[in-house]
Design goal:
72 residues; mainly alpha; 0% strand
């Protein structure tokens, strides 16, 4: 099951809260950090994709026509 942006963000927030626990063992901290970093990269990529779509729409002026953004 693919997680939505909102669910990924929620999961990342949970990971951050867990990492703030001073009693967390080093090995578990490293595992959570790795998972959080992966989620952060996924979220960033999704935001970049949306940003590019918005820019395409803005460039079209009065005519709002959505074009698929393809990265070079």
């Amino acid at each position: 099951m693919k997680l939505t942006f909102e669910k990924k963000l929620e999961k990342l927030e949970q990971i951050i809260a867990q990492l703030e626990d001073p009693s967390l063992e080093l090995e578990q901290s490293a595992k959570l950090f790795e998972e959080g970093l992966a989620l952060s990269k996924e979220l960033s990529a999704q935001l970049d994709e949306v940003k590019n779509k918005v820019e395409i729409l803005k460039k079209q002026g009065a005519e709002l026509k959505l074009e698929t953004f393809e990265e070079d």
